[in-house]
Design goal:
Length: 277
């Protein structure tokens, strides 16, 4: 690839990118970056008012933007959303599955052991992260199969590589996302087109509203013991920032990664490489 061609590969002009969870911290940052690269951005969310807040951060002179209702656990809403997107833009070039998260009812503590975790909490976390990813890939991946091209980017986690204490359902679900990413990459390439790629990024420890209670003491604002351990085992010595995801995400979505499929890229400040010694 010539240098000029390589630089142009990050120009997403005319390409339509669908993002679930785009109103969240990490998904929103990726959405804004793609917008600045001239992509058309479609935010899929069950809370339209929350999703619309992201529109104020997007520059419509770079690319079009729209918000469409969709629940990652209700396939019919996603199929309706996909239909709306194709009617407006003529196709779907990329899908980012950024919807996900943990829940206190699926988290062990001094007061609640693993044996006491309610089934409802486990169901919520596994369904949101794993089932939600699979169903969304069904609804939007079908159009890519018909087009014979497209890119899917899933969001896994470092928990998929090294399960962490206290969050068994989240770790298991994200391990499932990584496995599913590899499975779908092979399936789409062999059954429909090698021009359909499926990859994932695995963020390390990023401060979000969903995990802040585990990492930051609400009263004093200092790191919890868990937060301290994370920083001690992260060679770069800090939590990740949303912008740290952008480089890998844009690369995997671009033609610069045309021969890359079925991989899960850690973005963790070296956490997975450090043995603790």
């Amino acid at each position: 690839m010539e240098l000029e061609e390589f630089k142009n590969s990050f120009d997403f002009t005319g390409r339509t990118v669908v993002i679930t969870g785009g109103a969240g911290v990490l998904g929103g940052e990726i959405a804004c970056a793609l917008n600045r690269c001239n992509a058309n951005i479609v935010i899929i969310d069950r809370n339209l008012e929350l999703a619309k807040k992201l529109l104020h951060r997007l520059d419509t002179s770079c690319g079009q933007a729209m918000v469409v209702h969709g629940d990652v656990l209700k396939k019919e809403t996603l199929e309706e959303a996909a239909q709306q997107v194709t009617e407006r833009f003529g196709g779907i070039d990329a899908l980012i599955n950024a919807a996900g998260g943990n829940h206190p009812d699926a988290t062990t503590s001094a007061e609640r052991t693993f044996f006491d975790l309610p089934e409802s909490g486990l169901d919520f976390v596994v369904d949101l992260n794993l089932k939600g990813t699979i169903i969304t890939c069904q609804a939007f991946g079908k159009f890519m199969a018909e087009q014979k091209q497209g890119v899917i980017l899933n969001i896994s986690s470092m928990n998929a590589f090294r399960p962490l204490t206290r969050i068994p359902a989240y770790s298991a679900a994200k391990a499932g996302v990584s496995n599913f990413t590899q499975w779908l990459a092979v399936y789409m390439a062999q059954e429909f087109s090698p021009e359909i790629r499926v990859n994932a990024i695995a963020p390390g420890f990023f401060l979000t509203e969903q995990n802040r209670y585990l990492l930051i003491d609400e009263k004093g604002g200092n790191l919890t013991e868990r937060g301290k351990k994370i920083i001690e085992h992260t060679p770069m010595g800090r939590f990740g920032e949303p912008g740290d995801l952008i480089g890998a995400a844009l690369w995997l979505l671009s033609s610069a990664a045309a021969f890359v499929t079925g991989v899960v890229i850690p973005i963790d400040g070296g956490f997975s490489a450090y043995s603790g010694i």
